[in-house]
Amino acid sequence: MQSEALSEQLLQQAIAARDQGRLDQAAALLDRAEQAHPGGVGLLAERAQLLYARGRYPEAFQQIRQAIAAKPNQPDDYLLLGSIFREAGHPQDAHNCYRACLELCPGKVSAMICLGNLARDQRQTREARLWYEQALQAKPGDPNVQTNLASILCDTGHTGEAIRLLESSLRTRPAALTHSNLLLTLHYDSQTAPERIASEQRAWAALYAKAIRRLPLRNDWSTSRRLRLGFVSADFKQHPVGRLVEALWRHLDREQSEMVTYDAGTRLDGLSEKLRTLTDRWQSLQGLSDADAAELIRRDAIDVLFDLSGHTAGNRLLVFAHKPAPMQATWFGYPNSTGLDAIDWRLSDALSDPPGANESRYTEKLLRLRGAPWLYKAPEEPLPIRPLPHTRGEPFTFGCLNNPAKTSEASLAAWIAILRLCPKARLMLMTRDDEDYQQQLRQRFALQGVSASQLLLVVPGTPRQFYEYHYQVDLLLDPFPYNGAVTTCDALWMGIPVISVIGSSYVSRQGVCVLSLLGLSEWLCATPEDYVQRAVALAQSPAVLAAGSPGLRARLQNSPFMDYPQFARDFANAIRSAWQESARAASDSTPR
Q1: Which helix (H) or strand (E) holds 528?
Q2: Strand order in the sheet with 365-368
Q3: What local confidence, expressed as pLDDT, does residue 191 receive?
Q4: How many angstroms from the chain centroid is the CA of residue 272?
Q5: Other C-beta atoms lying within 10 Å of the C-beta of residue 219
Q6: Cβ pair 328, 305 in contact under 8 A
Q7: Which residues contact 246 (CB under 8 A, 6 or more apart)?
Q8: What is the rounded distance in angstroms from the CA atom of residue 400 to the CA atom of residue 500?
Q9: Distance (Å, rounded) from C-alpha 451 to C-alpha 432?
Q10: How far is Cα 283 from Cα 279, in angstroms, rounded to an integer?
Q11: Which residues lie below 8 Å from residue 223, measured CB to CB, with a gap of 6+?
């Protein structure tokens, strides 16, 4: 009996260590628990949990199956098995396991959240929302549930409601991830001033990063040697971040730069495997606490560490708060400042962040690249440019094929005004797979006098389906204040013109950046009212669009967004220049 009691005590200590991200300590405690009382069923399940946390899914699968066979009435075991199936890309098996968990424990909120997450994976937004709402009924005010439900609300255009829910969650239990979700959501809201976001970013850092101890670093500030660059992201896969780094890494001079990848994600795909071949070393951060991940990076002697996530899903910003590299920068994945004074630079350009305009909103110094601030990687499959729909005798069709969360109140008001002035025209709008939301959209337009026949609501499909949607569009309407970026280039690649409102912040100036660098500044609009007038004028006299459409792909190919060798040289030169500046600053601050 004493051995069983000791084993149980050690097991509980192992669970606590795992929850805190101390996986090596958890494993050692489990080994001691096994020695004290071999063959305990709880040990099998916890061993599976630990293997899952390390990303060793096949081994975790075997362990948890053994645990279930030995004791088949444990809800948490089915929850873990479902999560393993989800990560392995078997959604139906995952669904069955989560439902089995609920049958054993009908009020288990974590199972409802898992079912909601699984539905969201499959773009079944309405089902995901129903699961989150059921979870919130079971556990009112639960911050985890509120955060997940807020994501769905944002996806379906209820940005204000999502913001209020996240703010409520933070009042109940401040949490870095929830606060990051709030920061990202604020960008979609046309009523939120950039200054509010800047203030909230600093508040995030003060709450969660201020007390973090920075690591001692070596002082090798040599300016002429090869630099070791580290890249941190959860999106080294088929994602704009994955497409960006593939284009960059293929062209960086390896004699000047060594590259180490720190993968913060859980799922790899075909592009991930390509990226592995382009980097000097690939490290997974899965299962590592922020402190342990920072120590790993410090031991790797990284010179410049890049954050490619900002406040988006899967970010590891609190790793950067430990300052594991002497120079740190944020780039591309998030359209704003991180709020961290431990990150030295934010990569941008003079069009997105005009000199003297936005510096006060950033905690980082702006490192403006010479041409484009990021790269566009075109789809690999052949997709011909086709004549615009109106030239084929179809109604003139506007479109917005961006992330549905970017459908702000300001954008909707402009699109309604455009359709009222063009009663024979249509609007193709990307939405989530949510019948309730789609019906609300139709009603919103109908109340303003827009016929249901003028709306073409589509949902995200396969990558090829996304590109083929463009064949039904004459003119893309860039959303605001959160512009398209990669999606704007996707439209131009497909030969579709784009008009955009000129904003005052990075996130609302991506239209300015793309269109200006392609020599298409005439499609930029000073105000939302100008945007409406320009759209109507083009719909009424569309010959200029038809004439320019076939040449848009060539413009993009010849632009800085697709000049990969030149971008790589400019990127390397900018980083080298920032490194030299940081070295001078370090030298000036060293006591003599």
Answers
A1: helix 528-540
A2: 281-284, 257-263, 227-233, 304-307, 327-330, 345-348, 365-368
A3: 94
A4: 16
A5: 10
A6: yes
A7: 271, 274, 275, 278, 377
A8: 11
A9: 21
A10: 10
A11: 576, 579, 580, 583
Radius of gyration (C-alpha) of the chain in whole angstroms: 26
Residue with tokens 């920072």: 294
Check if the beta carbon of residue 489 is closer than 8 Å to that of residue 379. no
- The amino acid that residue 93 corresponds to is D
Tokens 């829910």 label which residue? 165
Total-model pTM: 0.91
pLDDT at 31: 79
Question: In this structure, are strands 345-348 and 327-330 parallel, antiparallel, or unpaired?
Answer: parallel
- The answer to whether residues 538 and 512 touch, using CB atoms and an 8 Å cutoff, is no
Q: Which among 494, 495, 508 has a CA at the least distance from the CA of 411?
A: 508
Long-range contacts of 202-206 (CB under 8 A, 24+ apart): 202/339, 202/363, 203/179, 203/339, 204/176, 204/179, 204/180, 204/311, 204/339, 205/321, 205/338, 205/339, 205/340, 205/341, 205/363
- Helix or strand or coil: residue 458? strand
Q: What is the spatial distance between Cα 557 and Cα 66, in angstroms, rounded to a whole number? A: 55
Side-chain half-sphere CA neighbours of 46 within 13 A:
26
Residue 233, beta-bridge partner list = 263
d(CA 114, CA 78): 11
Three-state DSSP state, 397: strand
Runs of H (alpha helix) within 125-259:
125-138, 143-155, 159-172, 176-186, 194-208, 240-249
Please list, residue by residue across 276-286, b when 16 or more beta carbons sit within 10 angstroms of its beta carbon and e when fewer do.
eebbeebbbbb
27: tokens are 């494993």
Both tokens of residue 169?
């969650």
Q: Contact 338/363 with Cβ under 8 angstroms?
A: yes
Which residues in 208-275 belong to E strands, given as ranges? 227-233, 257-263
Predicted local confidence at residue 592, as pLDDT:
52
Q: Residue 481, preceding bond cis, omega within 30 degrees?
A: yes
pLDDT at 40: 67
- Contact between 572 and 257 (Cβ < 8 Å): yes
pLDDT mean by block of 10 residues, the chain; 592 residues = 72 76 78 75 80 86 91 93 91 96 95 95 90 94 89 92 94 93 97 97 97 88 94 96 96 96 90 95 92 96 98 97 98 97 98 96 97 95 95 97 96 98 98 90 95 95 95 98 98 98 98 98 98 97 94 98 98 97 83 54
